[in-house]
Amino acid sequence: MAGDGGLQSVRRAFAILDAVAAGGDAGTGVTAIAAATGLAESTAHRIAATLVSLGALRRLPDRRYALASRLIWLGAAAASASIDRAVPVLTRLVETLGESANLAVLSGDRAEYVAQIPSPHSMRMFTEVGRRAELNCTGVGKAMLSALPDDRIEAIIARTGLPQKTEHSISEPDALWAEIAAARARGWVLDEQEQELGMRCIAAPIAGPAGDVYAVSVSGPLTRITDALIERAVPLLTGAAEEIAGLLDGSRPPRNRPD
């Protein structure tokens, strides 16, 4: 039936988008798309070309495919309402702990910050919404990695390496895997001056809708992000991660602020 053929084409197009998204910023070739989707290369090429014409994919100079700006716009439109609902959760973290709270999403091979509530202190961690950061040397990035399957982590490391932002950044795969194992065991992770000297960050992963991976974090200067504050922050942060997960997938209504 024609209707069934149309549904099949839609399923194939979305399977190709998923395969290209998994390829990250480096892009994905037709052979890899075909292997990931089970389609013939000719079919994968034809559908990918159609998605390019619609602005959903773009063709890179090396003939690989990457996600295009139309998907960014659609994704932003779909996510904005959910992210707005998470802002009160971030605000409560700031009011309770006194430090900046952030929400980030996995975007390709990097963490992209989508919301921040700044600390009231004049000396604070400020992260611009829309900024993208490496996964191996940020709290939100390492939290996201802990929520991914091992094969996807290996693929990201193969594509990006382990960039060093400071002398404290994790630059050895074994050290990163140990950090991921610890994060999986306890449900949170620390950034110990790995992204910016003098700054410390606590982060927890969030399972978002449709397989998206988010992370929530609290960050600030070493002088205020003490071990005692971390002990206070951990249950609040993991609770916030659980609450935001429910807000993102619509299963949990926003919590009313007390009068």
Strands, helices and their partners?
Elements: H1 2-22, H2 30-37, H3 41-53, E1 57-59, E2 65-67, H4 69-97, E3 100-107, E4 110-117, E5 132-133, H5 139-146, H6 150-160, H7 173-186, E6 189-192, E7 199-207, E8 213-221, H8 227-249
Antiparallel strand pairs: 1-2, 3-4, 3-8, 4-5, 6-7, 7-8
Helix pairs in contact: 1-2, 1-3, 2-3, 4-8, 5-7
Short description:
This protein has 259 residues and is an alpha+beta fold. It has helices at residues 2-22, 30-37, 41-53, 69-97, 139-146, 150-160, 173-186, 227-249; strands at 57-59, 65-67, 100-107, 110-117, 132-133, 189-192, 199-207, 213-221. It contains 8 helices and 8 strands.
Radius of gyration: 20 Å
- What is the CA-CA span between the terminal residues? 59 Å
Q: How helical, in percent, are the residues? A: 40-55%
* SSE class: alpha+beta
Percent range for β-strand residues: 15-25%
According to DSSP, the number of beta strands is 8
Order of helices and strands: HHHEEHEEEHHHEEEH
Mean pLDDT: 88
